[in-house]
């Protein structure tokens, strides 16, 4: 099966705008590229399919936030590498994997079999087993560049290196690959001395054994011949097609995707949430003929992406999920209901109560009517949102590129409290390593403002999670973090959701012993393959119950609903400046008891 042609910029633009057929073509066209990158990078590990699946899901969910459609391929490659690195960080032992790969059917074997390779091409592919994890990561990009599937500029961008530095690393990689090719040859025709060297070898390729065997070849008169006649590796790789994506992983099909979806939704990681636009996009991947199977070996729920923010300058935000244990969401479909006009409830002012927002018609009136004490826009400035008297704007430094003297000065001018990086644990959001965030943190601290931690998408209460490692590093470096910021989205629309949210906040408070700000929260369920929203009555009930709990939660300084505008389907509070939704009416009534 030949790989589909990669779609052009027009397809990316159409898919980003909600065109289902375009999204179908986009996923089908780029899935083989991602599969080959991840396959080479992981060396045929059993997690390969899971990492490919998660990469494609994150790309689909984050598409609404892609600003430059021409950069889609480069952006997708970066997401794939981030997922590979995340897999390396977790280092799940093979014996703990739920689904073991067939040892005879890993990516190396599949490449040899499906491309019908022989001779030195077969040796090159087999040699990739002997590379280290870092070497395989670079190999995955260089291999596709040599085959004409990526540009050298994209390789440099994906690795975060200058073109010159990337070229140097590629030369070193090719030297290691040639060494591994010699090892493959030597193992196929072992002399007696080599058999003695291999006496305590466990049969698993490793960098250490590659060096030992290569040293033997250099010193052995009989094995030295294996060094002769190596063809240039670029010539061997050039023109090789991509390895076809296995049917079990997902490709363009005709007919219904329902059987795959039915199997996928039984997976436990689905107790998650998506925000509106991305949810619709994700549904396309399983309803228009593109089957993107969903990962089942994750320890944590997978966050989804956020609806596009309606302003041209404010960064988009993404979905977040609760990391706490939740009850299983209702499996029966939510039927449309006619909502009776609720009784008029007086508004109450709360210093705790806030909202996240972008600009929309009547935003100032809505801020005043909801009686919020504060708001933010995911930016250092209010982004054309005029605050009513007495409503505080809280600036944010969204990501690494926002850490500039001018942006920090703007934040300091606009407030006294500063929110840290937005969902740095997500590739499609601020996408930062813990070390990068810690290195930049002193610049935020230098503003003298009160500082909120980076707001992770999920897992804020987990030992060894992104936030836990950041807080440990901050303490070790003597950095200041004044309070913890959290995001939470629940997929259980029953009254139990309030308790689940409370449990998550309490767990985070117990871990870090600091005040907490809940800067995004609401109800959205993605467990059935597409976004499922609560009924207006359920959402209003949750707004009432959650705000009553949050107002009385000791140590919780502030909370903010996602989001103030209801200009898109979802969980918004105000259709315009004077028309609250039922949830908006309930949220407006929130305040100190």
How do the helices and strands line up, and which of them pair or pack?
Elements: H1 9-16, H2 20-42, H3 48-62, H4 72-90, H5 107-114, H6 119-127, H7 133-146, H8 152-159, H9 163-188, H10 192-197, H11 207-219, H12 233-237, H13 258-264, H14 276-287, E1 350-356, H15 363-369, E2 372-376, E3 392-393, H16 405-414, E4 417-419, H17 434-445, E5 450-452, H18 466-477, E6 484-490, H19 496-512, E7 516-523, H20 536-552, E8 556-561, E9 574-576, E10 579-580, H21 582-588
Parallel strand pairs: 1-2, 1-8, 2-3, 4-5, 6-7, 7-8
Antiparallel strand pairs: 9-10
Could you characterize what this model shows?
43% of the residues lie in helices and 8% in strands. The chain is elongated and about 90 Å long. It has helices spanning 9-16, 20-42, 48-62, 72-90, 107-114, 119-127, 133-146, 152-159, 163-188, 192-197, 207-219, 233-237, 258-264, 276-287, 363-369, 405-414, 434-445, 466-477, 496-512, 536-552, 582-588, and strands spanning 350-356, 372-376, 392-393, 417-419, 450-452, 484-490, 516-523, 556-561, 574-576, 579-580. The longest helix has 26 residues, at 163-188. α20 links the parallel β7 and β8 (556-561). Mean pLDDT is 76; it is low at 92-105 and 251-342. With 593 residues, the protein is an alpha/beta fold. α2 (20-42) packs antiparallel against α3 and α19 (496-512) packs parallel to α20 (536-552). The protein has 2 domains: 9-237, no CATH class; 350-588, TIM Barrel.
């Amino acid at each position: 099966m030949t790989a589909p042609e990669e779609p052009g910029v027009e397809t990316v633009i159409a898919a980003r705008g909600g065109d289902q057929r375009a999204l179908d073509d986009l996923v089908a066209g780029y899935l083989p590229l991602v599969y080959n990158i991840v396959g080479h990078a992981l060396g045929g590990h059993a997690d390969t399919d899971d990492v490919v699946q998660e990469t494609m899901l994150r790309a689909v969910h984050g598409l609404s936030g892609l600003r430059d459609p021409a950069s889609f391929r480069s952006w997708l490659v970066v997401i794939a590498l981030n997922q590979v690195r995340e897999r390396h960080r977790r280092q799940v032992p093979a014996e703990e994997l739920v689904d073991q790969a067939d040892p005879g059917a890993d990516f190396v074997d599949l490449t040899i079999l499906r491309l019908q390779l022989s001779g030195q091409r077969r040796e090159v592919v087999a040699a990739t087993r002997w590379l280290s994890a870092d070497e395989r990561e670079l190999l995955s990009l260089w291999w596709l560049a040599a085959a004409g599937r990526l540009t050298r500029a994209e390789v440099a961008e994906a690795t975060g290196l200058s073109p010159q530095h990337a070229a140097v690393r590629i030369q070193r990689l090719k030297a290691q690959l040639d060494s591994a090719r010699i090892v493959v040859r030597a193992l196929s025709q072992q002399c007696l001395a080599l058999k003695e060297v291999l006496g305590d070898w466990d049969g698993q390729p490793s960098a250490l054994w590659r060096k030992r065997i290569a040293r033997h070849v250099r010193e052995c008169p009989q094995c030295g011949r294996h060094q002769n006649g190596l063809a240039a590796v670029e010539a061997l790789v050039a023109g090789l097609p991509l390895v076809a994506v296995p049917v079990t992983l997902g490709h363009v099909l005709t007919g219904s995707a329902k059987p795959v979806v039915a199997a996928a939704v039984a997976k436990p990681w689905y107790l998650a949430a998506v925000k509106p636009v991305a949810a619709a996009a994700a549904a396309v991947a399983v309803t228009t003929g593109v089957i993107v199977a969903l990962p089942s070996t994750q320890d944590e729920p997978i966050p989804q992406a956020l609806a596009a923010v309606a302003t041209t300058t404010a960064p988009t935000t993404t979905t977040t999920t609760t990391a706490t244990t939740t009850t299983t969401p209702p499996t029966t479909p939510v039927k449309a209901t006619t909502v009776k006009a609720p009784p008029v409830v007086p508004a109450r002012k709360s210093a705790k109560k806030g909202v996240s927002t972008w600009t929309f018609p009547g935003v100032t009136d809505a801020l005043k009517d909801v009686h919020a004490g504060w708001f933010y826009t995911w930016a250092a400035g209010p982004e054309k949102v005029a605050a009513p008297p007495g409503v505080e704007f809280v600036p944010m430094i969204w990501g690494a590129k926002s850490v500039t003297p001018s942006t920090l000065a703007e934040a300091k001018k606009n407030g006294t409290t500063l929110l840290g990086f937005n969902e740095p644990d997500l590739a499609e959001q601020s996408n930062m390593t813990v070390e990068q965030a810690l290195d930049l943190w002193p610049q935020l601290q230098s503003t003298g403002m009160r500082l909120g931690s980076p707001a992770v998408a999920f897992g804020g209460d987990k030992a060894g999670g992104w936030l836990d490692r950041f807080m440990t590093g901050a303490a070790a470096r003597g950095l200041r973090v004044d309070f913890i910021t959290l995001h939470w989205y629940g997929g259980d629309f029953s009254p139990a959701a309030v308790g689940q949210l409370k449990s998550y906040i309490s767990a985070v408070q117990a871990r870090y012993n600091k005040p907490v700000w809940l800067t995004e929260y609401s109800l959205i369920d993605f467990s059935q393959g597409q976004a499922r929203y609560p009924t207006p009555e359920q959402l209003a009930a949750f707004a009432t119950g959650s705000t009553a709990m949050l107002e009385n939660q000791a140590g919780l300084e502030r909370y903010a609903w996602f989001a103030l505008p209801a200009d898109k389907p979802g969980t918004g509070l105000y259709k315009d400046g004077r028309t609250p939704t039922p949830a908006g009416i309930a949220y407006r009534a929130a305040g100190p008891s």
